[in-house]
What does this fold into?
Amino acid sequence: MLRIAFVLLIATPAFAAAPHSGVAGSRSMPELSDLALFACAAFAVWFVRNRLRARFRGKAPKD
It folds into this structure.
């Protein structure tokens, strides 16, 4: 499960990027690759926080 999540985090932005035409254009909104990177980063933060919460759930703090 973790390996699949890692591969998806790495590969998703590459699939979302369109080939470059060589002509510069104006940016009126974020590109699809920018949105894919943001989604992957948000998922990664959520996933790590979820795993850390599960790891330390139920343990009493040490004095």
